[in-house]
Amino acid sequence: xxxxxxxxKAFEEVLSKDEIDMDHLRRLAFNGIPEEKGLRPLVWxxxxxxxxxxxxxxxxxxxxxxxxxxxxxxxxIVSPGGPTDHPLSxxxxxxxxxxxxxxxxxxxxxxxxxRLCPEMSFFQSATEFPCAEVVNSxxxxxxxKRVEQSVLNYSTFEQRGLGLAKLNNAKRRTESFSSGDYVxxxxxxxxxxxxxxxxxxxxxxxxxxxxxxxxxxxxxxxxYHTFAVNPNIEERRYAEPDCFFCFTNxxxxxxxxxIRSLDETESGINNMMSRLSECLKRNDPVVWExxxxxxxxxQYYSFRWLTLLLCQEFKLPDVERIWDSxxxxxxxxxxxxxxxxxxxxxxxxxILIGDFASNIKLLQHFPPMDVSRIINxxxxxxxx
Length: 384
Prior knowledge:
Keywords: GTPase activation
Protein name: Rab-GAP TBC domain-containing protein
Distance between the termini: 35 Å
Order of helices and strands: HHHHHHHHHHHHHHHHHHHH
Largest sheet: none
Domain Rab-GAP TBC: 34-330
Helix content: 55-70%
GO biological process, one term: intracellular protein transport
InterPro entries: Rab-GAP-TBC_dom (IPR000195), Rab-GAP_TBC_sf (IPR035969)
Mean pLDDT: 86
């Protein structure tokens, strides 16, 4: 039996138990989850606390959450209740005010999801399972159509008037969502990026204190892709609700990185970057000193690494492999810092001979590399 087949068998054995041995599963997943037999989506659902270790609770958990998500769509998208007050009402609680505010959020989401993973065609292609409640509604409930139709209306109804500059601005924003940005699919079809748009809009609606922050589209993308390409057709059918709840659980762990008012707190992004600097200082003081001399601060390159869990630094298959290890580690934020430190150490030779300009370019555009090297180096740091 080949090593790869043996790994698949090991996963199947641990997943066949009535109660999953989480320590065993984490050890296996840390070294990479095979893509065959729907193992990665299933293991991610367990590691992200979507389904429990007890297998007898899986069916009821799935049924409850999938039905709940269907109700979310009905309540927030299909039948949200039309505005009943005057569109020029200045009351913050007016239905029109909320509607326009939602559209401002949706505008940013729509812009971001259209350019998700541009190097691959997956997100532009049609999903096998379009949301019937949405695609059969003559287009009026499709979120990207709502953006196109509402941008001009938003400026028209704004309390400050109908100045020419405002109308020109609305025109430019409307043009940015022209047909050139969206290749229509056949009637009744729905692109994967539209599914992602819907999930992010719902997340923003249910998390008003945080809302949508640019970059969340990059976090949800790999999760949705993993679930949507599951070889099990019945599991693919529910990729959207399953992804939504896994994404919500993951965001509960890293949400502080997206809230600016928490930047200086222990769980904020500035502390994370400081921890990365200290990690590098302990593990490679020579490189740390070089970056310090050049005043090349972690803020210049690691902000994106940390907030987006490295998903913009590598191709999607490599991101998914890194996330296998990241999700498997009970202290995943600590391990994320170790991975980032390992990345710097692995390009140390270039850093030591480079100047500020070449080094910032190197770290902001990290070179292609076998991610297993990075994970192995991060494990050394973890055990140091």
